[in-house]
Amino acid sequence: xxNTMKAKAILVFLDGTICDMRHRIPLQGKEDFFSDDNILKxxxxxxxxxxxxxxxxxxxxxxIGARPKDYxxxxxxxxxxxxxxxxxxxxxxxxxxxxSIVKRIKGKFDFVAGxxxxxxxxxxxxxxxxxxxxxxxxxxxxxxxxNYLKEK
Length: 152
Prior knowledge:
Blueprint: E1 8-13, E2 19-20, H1 36-39, E3 43-44, H2 48-55, E4 60-65, H3 72-82, E5 87-91, H4 95-105, E6 110-116, H5 121-128, E7 131-134, H6 142-148
Parallel strand pairs: 1-4, 1-6, 4-5, 6-7
Antiparallel strand pairs: 2-3
Protein backbone atom coordinates (compact mmCIF):
# COMPACT_ATOMS: atom_id res chain seq x y z
CA UNK A 1 0.00 0.00 0.00
CA UNK A 2 1.39 3.39 -1.03
CA ASN A 3 1.76 6.10 1.63
CA THR A 4 -0.23 9.11 0.41
CA MET A 5 0.45 11.34 3.43
CA LYS A 6 1.73 14.71 2.33
CA ALA A 7 4.35 16.52 4.34
CA LYS A 8 3.03 19.37 6.44
CA ALA A 9 4.55 22.56 5.09
CA ILE A 10 4.91 26.28 5.74
CA LEU A 11 5.11 28.77 2.86
CA VAL A 12 7.54 31.56 3.76
CA PHE A 13 8.08 34.73 1.79
CA LEU A 14 11.69 35.81 1.35
CA ASP A 15 12.35 39.54 0.96
CA GLY A 16 11.08 41.60 3.86
CA THR A 17 9.92 38.57 5.84
CA ILE A 18 13.05 36.48 6.45
CA CYS A 19 15.51 38.34 4.19
CA ASP A 20 16.68 41.87 4.90
CA MET A 21 17.95 43.07 1.54
CA ARG A 22 17.61 46.79 2.19
CA HIS A 23 21.28 47.32 1.30
CA ARG A 24 20.22 46.52 -2.31
CA ILE A 25 17.33 49.02 -2.50
CA PRO A 26 19.51 51.81 -4.00
CA LEU A 27 20.32 49.36 -6.84
CA GLN A 28 16.67 48.64 -7.69
CA GLY A 29 16.17 48.66 -11.46
CA LYS A 30 19.90 48.18 -12.06
CA GLU A 31 21.69 45.04 -13.20
CA ASP A 32 23.56 44.65 -9.89
CA PHE A 33 20.36 44.45 -7.84
CA PHE A 34 20.25 40.65 -8.29
CA SER A 35 23.99 40.02 -8.61
CA ASP A 36 25.23 36.95 -6.77
CA ASP A 37 27.60 39.08 -4.68
CA ASN A 38 24.83 41.43 -3.57
CA ILE A 39 22.36 38.63 -2.80
CA LEU A 40 25.00 36.88 -0.70
CA LYS A 41 25.36 40.10 1.37
CA UNK A 42 21.69 39.94 2.41
CA UNK A 43 21.06 39.18 6.08
CA UNK A 44 18.26 37.40 7.88
CA UNK A 45 15.60 39.52 9.57
CA UNK A 46 15.77 39.59 13.36
CA UNK A 47 15.12 36.11 14.75
CA UNK A 48 14.17 34.59 11.39
CA UNK A 49 16.96 32.00 11.13
CA UNK A 50 16.29 30.63 14.60
CA UNK A 51 12.52 30.59 14.12
CA UNK A 52 12.64 28.93 10.68
CA UNK A 53 14.90 26.23 12.12
CA UNK A 54 12.42 25.74 14.96
CA UNK A 55 9.55 25.39 12.44
CA UNK A 56 11.60 22.99 10.30
CA UNK A 57 11.58 20.46 13.14
CA UNK A 58 7.87 19.88 12.40
CA UNK A 59 7.28 21.26 8.90
CA UNK A 60 8.75 21.19 5.43
CA UNK A 61 9.87 24.69 4.49
CA UNK A 62 8.77 26.16 1.16
CA UNK A 63 10.33 29.52 0.32
CA ILE A 64 8.77 31.88 -2.22
CA GLY A 65 10.02 35.22 -3.43
CA ALA A 66 9.44 38.14 -5.75
CA ARG A 67 12.54 37.54 -7.81
CA PRO A 68 13.10 36.36 -11.37
CA LYS A 69 13.21 32.55 -11.50
CA ASP A 70 16.81 32.64 -12.77
CA TYR A 71 17.88 33.35 -9.18
CA UNK A 72 16.64 30.12 -7.57
CA UNK A 73 20.13 28.62 -7.14
CA UNK A 74 21.76 31.75 -5.66
CA UNK A 75 18.75 32.21 -3.38
CA UNK A 76 19.06 28.60 -2.18
CA UNK A 77 22.81 29.13 -1.69
CA UNK A 78 22.11 32.27 0.39
CA UNK A 79 19.52 30.46 2.53
CA UNK A 80 21.98 27.65 3.28
CA UNK A 81 24.99 29.94 3.78
CA UNK A 82 23.41 31.91 6.61
CA UNK A 83 21.76 28.97 8.33
CA UNK A 84 18.15 28.69 7.14
CA UNK A 85 16.77 25.14 7.03
CA UNK A 86 16.57 23.28 3.75
CA UNK A 87 13.43 23.66 1.72
CA UNK A 88 12.04 24.16 -1.74
CA UNK A 89 12.64 27.56 -3.35
CA UNK A 90 10.20 29.09 -5.83
CA UNK A 91 10.54 32.52 -7.41
CA UNK A 92 8.15 34.62 -9.45
CA UNK A 93 8.80 38.23 -10.34
CA UNK A 94 5.17 39.32 -9.98
CA UNK A 95 2.02 38.30 -8.12
CA UNK A 96 0.59 36.51 -11.16
CA UNK A 97 3.69 34.28 -11.45
CA UNK A 98 3.69 33.58 -7.71
CA UNK A 99 -0.01 32.68 -7.78
CA SER A 100 0.68 30.29 -10.67
CA ILE A 101 3.46 28.67 -8.62
CA VAL A 102 1.18 28.28 -5.59
CA LYS A 103 -1.58 26.71 -7.71
CA ARG A 104 0.99 24.29 -9.11
CA ILE A 105 2.44 23.21 -5.74
CA LYS A 106 -0.62 23.25 -3.50
CA GLY A 107 -1.28 19.54 -4.01
CA LYS A 108 2.34 18.64 -3.29
CA PHE A 109 2.21 19.45 0.44
CA ASP A 110 -0.29 19.92 3.26
CA PHE A 111 0.22 23.65 3.79
CA VAL A 112 -0.47 24.57 7.40
CA ALA A 113 0.47 28.27 7.22
CA GLY A 114 1.88 30.99 5.05
CA UNK A 115 4.10 33.77 6.39
CA UNK A 116 4.64 37.01 4.51
CA UNK A 117 5.02 40.76 4.94
CA UNK A 118 2.74 42.15 2.24
CA UNK A 119 -1.02 42.08 2.01
CA UNK A 120 -0.92 40.36 -1.39
CA UNK A 121 0.98 37.45 0.21
CA UNK A 122 -2.35 36.73 1.89
CA UNK A 123 -3.84 35.88 -1.54
CA UNK A 124 -1.31 33.07 -1.90
CA UNK A 125 -2.15 31.75 1.56
CA UNK A 126 -5.88 31.86 0.76
CA UNK A 127 -5.26 29.88 -2.43
CA UNK A 128 -3.50 27.24 -0.32
CA UNK A 129 -6.34 27.22 2.22
CA UNK A 130 -3.94 27.68 5.12
CA UNK A 131 -3.51 29.99 8.05
CA UNK A 132 -2.06 33.36 7.00
CA UNK A 133 0.42 35.53 8.87
CA UNK A 134 1.22 38.99 7.52
CA UNK A 135 4.06 40.40 9.60
CA UNK A 136 5.70 43.81 9.63
CA UNK A 137 8.21 44.18 6.80
CA UNK A 138 11.86 43.90 8.00
CA UNK A 139 10.72 43.56 11.66
CA UNK A 140 8.66 40.36 11.90
CA UNK A 141 7.23 39.45 15.29
CA UNK A 142 7.82 35.70 15.38
CA UNK A 143 5.88 35.45 18.67
CA UNK A 144 2.72 36.20 16.67
CA UNK A 145 3.32 33.07 14.61
CA UNK A 146 4.33 31.01 17.67
CA ASN A 147 1.22 32.06 19.59
CA TYR A 148 -1.31 31.54 16.82
CA LEU A 149 0.05 28.74 14.63
CA LYS A 150 -2.55 26.01 14.79
CA GLU A 151 -1.48 22.43 14.44
CA LYS A 152 -3.46 20.61 11.78
